[in-house]
User: Fold these one by one.
Assistant:
Number 1:
Amino acid sequence: MIGIMCAMREELEPILEKVEIKNVIEYAKNNYYMAQFGKLDLVLAYSKIGKVNASTTASILIEKFKAQKILFSGVAGAIEKDLKIGDLIIATKTTQHDVDLTVFGYEPGFIPESKIFFECDKHLNDLAKTVAKKLGIKLKEGIIASGDQFIHNKEKKEWIAKTFKASAIEMEGGAVGCVTWTLDVPFFMLRAISDTAQEGAGVDFDEFLEKSSEVSAKFLIEMLRQMENEK
Ligand code: SAH
């Protein structure tokens, strides 16, 4: 069983259009779509925005629906200069930029008995790179930082860039990274850029949410096609 999750309805819808939905299960104030993509069994959901919602959905996908890997598709704000709106990035690792226990001498992002960075699955990232190469699509790879804030401020963005060496910013990946690390489940994080996380980002986000969600969804579907071929 493959778990596919997004944060927002707009991010999930273009994926749902391309799979064969068998059943919709209402659970924990959310809908879980049981579906088929060729030979692949899927369970899909959007969590709603933010780290707590994303953790809840990721845990449910794994514990209740027995997802053996989690693939995330969605949009993000760009940090790296050569990431333009509509470009794709996969995470090498994710982190929580809003975790701050620095007064106790810990590094930003660190929680005792946990860690700052959560590694994404190398095999799934290699698969994504193979697909990108085959289709001639530019695919960046880098650290993705998450926090419960929409970043639209150059100073804050630069602090996150410098502190975590992050390439993109969003509101869920660090949480899903923590859940999948805790439960030992491979995690893949794909995002298409919707804005540049500085002044004006809110306007860009509203304008490009749908288009960038589509870009990410389309690539995810190509990955499923590749996974099916390899099955
Ligand atoms: N306009 C939306 C809220 C969007 S919040 C509404 O009214 O419902 C932004 C979502 O996109 C989050 O899920 C986050 O993961 C991602 N995102 C894109 N750009 C971002 C940015 N600059 N900062 C933080 N999250 C961003």
Number 2:
Amino acid sequence: MDDPGSRSLSLAAFADQVAGCTKCPLAEGRTQVVFGSGNADADLMFVGEAPGFHEDKQGVPFVGAAGKLLEQLLAGIGLTRDEVYIANCLKCRPPGNRDPMPDEIEACESHLWRQIELIQPRVVATLGNFATKLLSAKPTGITRVHGQEQETTLGGRRVLLYPIYHPAAALYTPRMLDVLQSDFRRIPELLGRELEPPAQMLAEVAAEPAVQLGLF
Ligand code: URA
């Protein structure tokens, strides 16, 4: 268990480093890096796609229309955005809000892995296709996997990866809202799940008695 406030300090120090990132050409067109926001000790982390116009101006993820809907969905399960952590796959706005490109995701992903390592969330909810494919390391799209949690190792820890539709999808297709609400309703139960320790830790524990028995 870390000292109180230590995650928040480490995360702030890391945000300062990332603020000057020039790993990809998006650095040239941005107003600022949109690192992430919320509670550094959160058990629940959301990962979206990339900052849009408003996020780029304000330096905070999900402050536009999709963000308002995300806040409403959170309120529906008794949470506020200050109790969770919100980040994106890309930290800089793609021009004209176009889709992220593979080389941009590749250049930026180490920032997200480090955020996950520092925050140590129990549940990582991926919003939409880009975050879901990146964090699951699988090509299966959100339509097939939404609402289906999968246990995986991220940032050296076991987490529940929980793919859900991007809230922007419900802005354009209102019946999506029902699906999103019903997928959100499962989050409190997922936060209470016990997770297996990482495979490496299990292997170490399993190896211990054998070492003591002089088998190696
Ligand atoms: N959409 C995203 O994926 N991220 C944001 O920060 C805003 C809109």
